[in-house]
Design a protein that fits this description.
The structure is a homodimer.
Chain A lengths: L1 H11 L6 H23 L4 E8 L5 H11 L5 E5 L14 H6 L6 E5 L4 H8 L5 H20 L2 E9 L2 H13 L11 H6 L1 H15 L6 E5 L3 H21 L9 H8 L17 H25 L3 E7 L5 H9 L7 E5 L5 H4 L5 H4 L8 E5 L8 H4 L5 H20 L3 E8 L2 H13 L9 H8 L1 H15 L6 E5 L3 H22 L1
Parallel strand pairs in A: 1-3, 1-4, 2-3, 4-5, 6-8, 6-9, 7-8, 9-10
Chain lengths: ~500, ~500
């Protein structure tokens, strides 16, 4: 606490800068920023600048200044309001994920993720506990951005109580500027002490986060412009020069740690099967049940995310088709996941999945998913050990956000054995219109069966959470697998509907 | 009319296909589709398949079939409902633009752009006039897609009155399938003759459109699957083999046609200027006026699109900054337009602008815009003559949709003379932090001054429409230009608010 307080006072005592001094500092600052922007453009880095603080401290002006000083074609500015109808359909962080800058770009964020928790706590709409929970969510969000190639620059623009009063009085004394005082501004000023208290806590909590706050006094125009620009310059310079090194655990120490959970899949009874006639009758009944449940879920605004993973030829596509056959086309989307495109590679690896979350009341079926990070990307070396090793927690956090927002999340691992895969590969290869489904890559993956097996074991052991458990599906008999998938989805939907 | 009727009857008399025949046809059809999809993936073409027709004719089943037969990773399926909150913020075609397939992809569209006009006319919610207007809008939409690299395959799936009755009776006779009958299905059947009447008109109107309808009887499952798949195969094969040749007018015949409107810019009085003190006081007052108007516009849901075009260094950025200084950051977005990215190049050239349209009640300022198609892309040869020559009408149609949806559209051409540009280039080049703004390209463009001049003349003469007129801004004096821009925006907003 003490440390944050000191910083706070230092910031508020930032000396004034005269017009003359500013004129001397400005050209060099601008030149450096422009050059760094050029360097950024050719890098894998993206920069997100988050502005927070009190009204009247000059946040908006600073955003305009940066847009004027740098090349606006490399800058994306976003300011959030409660009027974003699309955003209401999704978890609260969705809109920030949507707007994250691409690699090479600078994103400027106003009234973003700190805004609601701060105001909520100031006006006592959030309890201290809820407030702390929000701050924890923010920390996780920032940590995963930072870990995955985004430089976060957090700028807190502050005014002391007297200075804020003077700003409000100055504005209200002239009919020409009175309009700039937002509704609630005086009330907020009356809450000044609450503001400082909540701000303190935010600053303090970020001491543990991946990026510290830059505290800037909004009192003097030139001083605040120089302070923000300097902080941005320094942070970009440092990060471009010294990209953080991320070292993951070695293979041997990782394997040792995970030893106890290896081999669990081998315990599955893959001989389970279903008689063709029973299958047909069950399928029909389950499809009707699913339609009725999904109809209710749509009315109740319950969204569903279904994840399908499994070996090549495990039967993911077939299970998905039996699921959607009975649904209205408006109610669902099937998203097949292939290798990421260039624009997807220029973002956080979860970005492309956030994009496809279902609207309220709908279903998205992911044919392969974010688990690619800890399966194919791990095994094939597309992700570094540090990257896939931290992905387990990142994924848990992502899914927790869905569940916290009343999404139904079902994750299916469909398991077949090696002989069954071979039989299905050969069958496909012998049918001209199915041969395209089998590529050299599939045969290569097959050779790494055991390596994949371990990766799957690790995945299940580290991401099998109460809120989003894995369902292991015995896949040797397609009928059995399809019915198990359908039954699970129906049961989970029913459970969610009962909770309402 | 006769021709359409004949087609109709032919379609309904499609012979049944036995299971045995189907089993013989299916493998070859699937193989061909998969191969064509592979060819598509490596082409600049995108394919949009639109399904329309009566309930129960098997549209949804067909979409699932195509997803099963082809590689779903190259297919995007979209079905529309009135519950898409985001779409309500924009003109009605926005959601289709958002979802258009990328080059190399296949898009399957259900309950899409034909759905509302058809149902609206059947239930007499649309007058014949309104219905015809909607069909005309659709024709324009399809024409511009088709012209710009999308193969449209339009599938009308039909049932005769008796067959539809039987389908409904079959479904309702079993408790297991009764749920499949949608609310209003019986009522719709009662309107069967209205359906046929409106469908006739749709089919007929498309005779003039870029792509004819494929009429398919939904009566027999195998027959309809074969009919749709065959039509898709044939259309793709033909288009991939014979890409349409588009020949534009030659330079000389174009110049001849446009001769009378050339030189208009030269008539502008660029000596207009504003005293510095008057400028300052006017600027302040106009920014307040703008803030107040925009506040009302936001409440009233009036969206605004501002387009800034002008020579390099004409002062677009400066004018934009003066406009947004007084606005809330949540109310606007500045979108600087640079060369299109790869993903943008894989779409219709208007796609990236549709993406950035403002939400209801907000403002988007485009720093350069879709007019690049008829300026830089024309002059530098990035667009073929046929492409930029038809772009004028495409742009008029785009802007008309905005205006029809109560958008305020202001288009500014800021004009400076050659000496002023030179002076500003040199000034920029001598200031280290501004030198990046001047590139070799800017000097090269400058050498083509007269060529650009002609392109601007053509642009203004062909896109200066009553609903979205050009405002020519004398830009030699920056103060004059900025005030003129601000005044125009205020006046237009005021006019729009008065109309409510």
């Amino acid at each position: 606490m003490t440390k944050a307080k000191d910083l706070w006072e230092d910031a508020l005592n930032q000396p004034k800068i005269s017009k003359q001094e500013f004129k001397e500092l400005e050209p060099e600052l601008r030149r450096e920023l422009v050059e760094l922007q050029q360097e950024l453009r050719n890098s894998n880095l993206s920069v997100a600048v988050v502005f927070a603080g009190v009204d009247g401290a000059g946040k908006h002006e600073m955003v305009n200044t940066l847009n004027a000083w740098m090349d606006p074609r490399g800058i994306v500015t976003r300011a959030y309001s409660s009027k974003d109808l699309a955003a209401k359909e999704y978890p609260s962080f969705w809109k920030y994920w949507r707007d994250l800058p691409t690699a090479g770009q600078l994103g400027l964020f106003l009234s973003a993720w700190y805004s609601k928790p701060l105001l909520g706590r100031v006006h006592r709409k959030l309890s201290e506990n809820e407030f702390q929970k929000r701050l924890k969510d923010i920390q996780e969000f920032e940590q995963t951005l930072s870990d995955n190639g985004t430089l976060l620059v957090k700028v807190w623009m502050h005014l002391d109580k007297k200075a804020q009063l003077k700003r409000l009085e100055d504005l209200s004394s002239e009919p020409e500027t009175e309009w700039q005082i937002k509704p609630g501004a005086w009330e907020n000023w009356g809450m000044y002490d609450h503001f400082v208290e909540a701000s303190d806590k935010i600053i303090k909590s970020s001491a543990k986060a991946s990026s510290p706050w830059v505290l800037v006094s909004g009192k003097h125009r030139y001083a605040r412009q120089v302070a923000v620009a300097t902080a941005l310059r320094d942070a970009m310079k440092e990060r471009l020069k010294n990209p953080p090194k991320q070292t993951g655990q070695s293979k041997s120490s990782w394997d040792k740690k995970m030893k106890s959970c290896r081999g669990s899949l081998r315990g599955m009874d893959l001989s389970k099967e279903l008689d063709k006639e029973i299958y047909k009758s069950k399928l029909k009944k389950l499809q009707i049940r699913l339609y009725q449940l999904q109809h209710k879920a749509q009315i109740s605004g319950i969204s569903t995310v279904l994840v399908f993973e499994g070996q090549d030829a495990a039967g993911k596509g077939g299970a998905i088709r039996r699921l959607v056959q009975g649904l209205d086309a408006q109610q669902y989307q099937v998203i097949p996941i292939a290798a990421p495109s260039k624009i997807e590679l220029a973002h956080h690896y979860l970005w492309r999945f956030w994009k496809h979350l279902p609207h309220r009341g709908r279903v998205t079926l992911f044919d392969r998913s974010w688990y690619g990070r800890v399966l194919v990307e791990r095994v094939e070396g597309f992700a570094q050990p540090a990257e896939w090793q931290r992905a387990f927690e990142e994924i848990n956090s992502f899914e927790k956000q869905l569940v916290d927002n009343n999404y139904v999340v079902c994750k299916f691992w469909i398991q077949i054995d090696k002989d069954m895969q071979l039989a299905r590969f050969e069958e496909r290869q012998n049918i001209p219109y199915k041969a395209w489904k089998i590529t050299d890559e599939d045969w290569r993956n097959r050779e790494k069966w055991d390596v994949y097996d371990n990766a799957v074991d690790d995945m299940i052991s580290l991401t099998d959470k109460l809120q989003a458990p894995w369902v292991l599906v015995e896949g040797n008999d397609k009928s059995w697998a399809r019915i198990k998938v359908l039954e699970t989805v129906c049961d989970q939907l029913e459970k969610a509907l009962k909770k309402l």
